[in-house]
Amino acid sequence: MNPNIEGFENAPTPCRPDAITESSLKRLKTVAVILLMLAMISVALSFWMWQRQSPEQGPWGLAVLPDGQVWLSVDDELWRLDTEGHLQRKVSAVEAGLPGAAAILMPYPDGHLAAWSRRDSTLYLLTADDAHSVAIITPQWPSDLARYGNDNIHYAFAPDGRIAIAAASGSVVALFDAQGRYLARSPAGAFHFTNGLWWANGWWCTDTNRFTLVQLDDKNLTETQRVTLNDHERGWRFLGLAATSRGKADEDQNPLGVVERLDNGMVYGHIVDIFPSGDQSAYPVPESESALEARALAWLGDTLLVTDGQGFAIRRYSADRSLLSDWGDAAVQAELTQQYAHVESSRFWYRIFLTSAIALFLLGLIVALRQRYLEARARKAEDSSDVAVSPEQISDIAGKLNLSSDELIGQRLQVQWPLFLVILVTMSATFYLTHQAKTSASGDKTLWLIVAALAIMVLMGVWASRRMFRAMRNDERFANTRALQLLKRTDFFWPLRQPDEIPCETMMLDRASLWLVLTNQRLLMFRTNAFEARLHLSLPRSALRGAQFVPSKQMPWWKQKMFSDGSLRFLLADGSVITGIVGYGCANVAQRITELITRAPVKLEGEMLGEMPKGERLKKETLRETPANQRRASWQVFASFLIPGLGQWMQNRFVFGLLFFVIWLAIAGRFAYIVWIAWAPRKEVFASDFWRAGLTLLIVCLAAAYDAWRMRGSPSRE
Asked: I want to staple 242 with a disulfide (CB 3.0 to 4.6 A). Which of 25, 208, 259, 706 is the partner?
């Protein structure tokens, strides 16, 4: 077809694009291999650093014996210290006869040291002087509680040697005699997890998630008293370790116990004395820390000792709840500090290597995909008898300019900065107020502030959006930039170009979901997303009888679309009509397309182009996909819903497939973890967390399925 037909006189001259050299493809492939190899090396180094720091957990168990001796477990060793904190002896866990590092140390009523190691149901009694094993007590758990007896448990002893064990995961307290024979259990439903237990003329336990202390009967563990804590701060909603208290009385009330209040992660918290009224008095946190990672509590006379895993130190408090200097002599503190520095160094390099591995892997993958894309494009160019017009040669389309990258960035910033500012302020304010709502006692008031702030931001967002769209309507260069950018790409229109075919106009339809290209030979429409375009419809000029642009003001009010200049309609030779929504600022482009088509319409013999018949949007009527294409598209959509990214991979859209898969994998991993800890149960799972994670996972699956459907096959009407 002659490119200089009526309406297409000023078409640009075809030329060939620069060839992609084989050497450049080899260089990209080499770079990708090197980056992936470096990623593997970084993974190995991060694993090595993890292995270095994981055995070093610092101080953990702590016990003060009646004679004033203090036993401290540090990694796989037991340290004996005197009342002044001088180190007297070190005994390895193997020498003590323990199966592993001691997680719990407690004084036994007969003067021995009791020790327990994780994932072991046995209690070991050790000598007070040299921590050698003298007896083993194996609690005889009932069959329905046996699975809770070796993990996340807490001990307390009565003066006669009876043993109470709080099994946090089972939300139960069980009582055994001095030989380990089962005696009784707490009533069903008495606890929603329990992490604290101590003896004070009876058994006292923490109802962890209900923020309550519970007293159980001495003999049969029936509930005798329940004290609910006041001042339930949102940031400290769980109870952890607990012990009897020797703290100062408050308003003639003696404290019931000293308890750890935990944050939502149930790792960090602070220590409080709890009184019969439910009031609390807090023990201060060191200035260098925002919270403690308390691992054990013990009283040395009137001094409270707390092993802190946050800073590898033994914190020391007076009876009036004043923070004193860390406990232990200079040599002990220096050794703990050195160990902490070593662990922190290993953690630092672990994070560095792991982050580097992720970054190198993603960069290598991007380079590899880029190399594959360029290789495929070069192969297409070699197979094509008439390659594309170089996009750099398109300096003018129907008399309209093409912005440079710098001009485009400057123009977008000039028009869109208010909207960006509103989004930034909205996100920052929401994050800050949400944090305040979780950590302050006045959470309900803060929630109202969030609602008010969001309402204001919505109004500002509407104002900024209207400002942006007004600028788009008054400046076609900005409104039609997306279509021009897609036309400049060498991988969308140009590989499909026919001999002597010249693009003459281009624009976006249906809120940028469809990209229209009018040439001297065809009308083409592409499905698009943020980065891709796939051919949706190809009509020869002989199939077009006419076109009509209907401004939004001339349309009935129920047909007017928000942020639209009107609709563009194409009448086909078979009588069907294609209709698309014209966005803000593109009315002039739609008018020019209409003029180009109507100046040389294809008329059937004996007919004149009259009023356009009522048509439908570019959906079912004009698609007319073959059954094979429909089945293929259905499988792609279904595959993307099951495993996001799989359908995109079937469509040879590897970058988007990888993106959806990585996002889905991260969210699915969190959802699986929440389900696992709820089923175990390991710790509390709020219904909101479960539904939020599940809904997010469903949204990702639906988004991937929608993307696969939107970018499905490339049917043609020719």
From this structure: 259
| Neighbouring C-beta atoms of residue 571, cutoff 10 Å | 25
Query: What's the pLDDT at 290?
Result: 80
* Amino acid at position 63, single letter: A
For the chain, what percent of residues have pLDDT higher than 90? 20
How far, in Å, CA of 36 to CA of 132, rounded?
52
Cis check: omega of the bond before 681, within 30 degrees of 0: yes
Q: Give yes or no for a contact between 171 and 192, defined as CB atoms under 8 angstroms apart.
A: yes
Q: Is the dihedral of CA 498, 500, 503, 504 positive or negative?
A: negative
How confident is the model at residue 350, as a pLDDT?
87
Return the pLDDT at 232.
61
Which H helix or E strand runs over 467? Answer: helix 443-474
Cβ pair 72, 314 in contact under 8 A = yes
pLDDT value of residue 610: 40
Q: Which residue has the tokens 């209207």?
A: 466
Give the span between the Cα atoms of 313 and 625, in whole angstroms. Answer: 71
707 neighbors 644 (Cβ within 8 angstroms): no
- Sorted by sequence, the CB contacts under 8 Å of residue 708 that are 6+ apart come out as 633, 636, 637, 639, 640, 647, 648, 651
Backbone torsions φ then ψ of 12, nearest 5 degrees: -70, 165
CA angle 17, 21, 27 (to 5 degrees): 135
Q: Which residue has the higher pLDDT, 609 or 632?
A: 632
CA distance 197 to 195: 7
Q: How far does the chain reach from its first CA to its final CA, in angstroms?
A: 16
Residue scoring higher pLDDT (261 or 151): 261
Give the integer Cα–Cα distance in Å for 713 and 650. 11
| 259-298 residue pLDDT tens | 999 887 778 888 999 999 888 888 998 887 888 888 999 9
Radius of gyration of the chain (CA): 36
CA angle, residues 267, 671, 361, in degrees to nearest 5 = 90
Task: Record the tokens describing residue 473, joined without a space.
Answer: 């309507």
**H/E run at residue 136:** strand 133-137
Kindly tell me if the per-residue pLDDT of 176 is higher than 90: yes
> Would you tell me the crossing angle of helices 654-679 and 687-710 to the nearest 10 degrees?
160
Residue 90, both tokens: 């070190």
The share of the chain scoring above pLDDT 70, in percent, equals 75
Taking CA atoms, 239 is separated from 114, 212, 508, in Å, by 24, 8, 58
Count of other CB atoms within 10 angstroms of residue 459: 11
Hey, what amino acid is at 165?
I
User: Mean pLDDT throughout 416-426?
Assistant: 69
Task: Rank 24-28, 217-221, 473-477, 616-620 by mean pLDDT and report only the highest.
Answer: 217-221
Rounded to whole angstroms, the Cα distance separating 103 from 61 reads 5
Supply the mean pLDDT for the chain.
79
For β-strands 577-583 and 616-617, DSSP reports them as parallel
Q: Cβ atoms within 10 A of the Cβ of 688, count?
A: 8
Which candidate, 216, 111, 87, 96, places its Cα nearest to that of 164? 216
Contacts of 307 by beta carbon, 8 Å cutoff, 6+ apart: 59, 60, 61, 62, 72, 294, 295, 296, 314, 315
Q: How far, in Å, CA of 49 to CA of 357, rounded? A: 13
| CA distances from residue 350 to 56, 333, 355, 504, 662 in whole angstroms, order as listed | 14, 25, 8, 56, 22
Give me the half-sphere count of Cα atoms (radius 13 Å) on the Cβ side of residue 111. Answer: 6
> Which residue, chain included where needed, has tokens 């020498």?
95
> What band does 588 get if pLDDT is binned at 50, 70 and 90?
confident
Provide DSSP, 678-715: HHTT-S---HHHHHHHHHHHHHHHHHHHHHHHHT----
